[in-house]
Amino acid sequence: MGHLNATALNEKGTSVAVGAGAVWNDVYGYLDGFNLAAAGGRNGLVGVGGLLLGGGISHFSPRVGWACDGVVGYEVVLANGTLANISTTSHPDLYRALKGGGNNFGVVTRYELKTFPQGNMSVNTFSYDVSQVGAVFDAFNDVAADPNFDPYVSLQAGLLYSSAAKAWSVSASAYYTKPVLHPEVYSGFEALPSISNTSSITSVASLAAENPTPPLNWLFATLTLGTSSETMLDIFKTLNGSLYDFNPAGGVTWNFAFEPLPSVMLSKSAATGGNVLGLNPEDGNAIVLLFSALWPNSSSSDAIYQQGRDTFAAIEKVAEGKGELRKFEYLNYAGPHQTPLASYGADSLNFLRHVSKKYDPTGVFQHKVPGGFKVW
Q: Distance (Å, rounded) from C-alpha 178 to C-alpha 116?
């Protein structure tokens, strides 16, 4: 698919056609020259297709919704070998299913994405001593729980633990999609004693151009929480208790990223034909947690996978005990033991199964395509 990477703006500049083999660096680098952007991955090396089929969290999501909500058309090779153009007016059921339904319905060869004006943005990064973790969570929650969520916010609070050093680091990556240094919305982070505190203005393309991730072993899982700094702190305490003395051969680095999932972001979906993620603005603001690990020594993999499953189960129990565990599992962060498509709810899952059987009655993409989460 990597050769299907052409990017072309339409005559009016309102949408951009992107080959499914492109990465987001291709898209942002192209659109930057027109002072435009499209909702897509925050790391420019992420593939366009995978991110969009799983929903897609973008720096711009509070303004325009999930990245998949910005898709106005798909070119798809169906199970019977035919090439179809999919939109709100052509196969609208398949159009909706592709917005979060994964690789269950066909081979998408091209996406047409809605564009919008976008200049430079600000990048604000904070690093803190672990003693400040509770205060960092409070500052994060003040932003994430705000019913008047600032649509220019793109925020992560991060925990990183090195098993070799037995040391935690605490950070906040506070982006703002306007060229505003030190935006007021991040004043809570600014006020805390920090190890480092930087702020700069950059282009979307420059920000996305991250270095490649080393070719190491990975573990992923995810859960969704209500907005509660108390629950976040209890999760940290559980993580620390579970991981502190675990140091396999070669070591392991654990990374935990908390991200807002504001209701304003969810309200954008209906205006673009809807998606299948099963989320409603009425549910209120929430938080998505990415639980991950990275390690060099493959001989430690079994032990790390087991430790990861046990630790993840422990923090799920904490969130559930606090009454803050939500059912939604973000597909692009989900681990192989999770069921993100089922987490969309029975109505969405039944719809996905119906669409799959309609366009792929023999189950080509269920039985002959490896990888991904299946609907059958």
A: 13
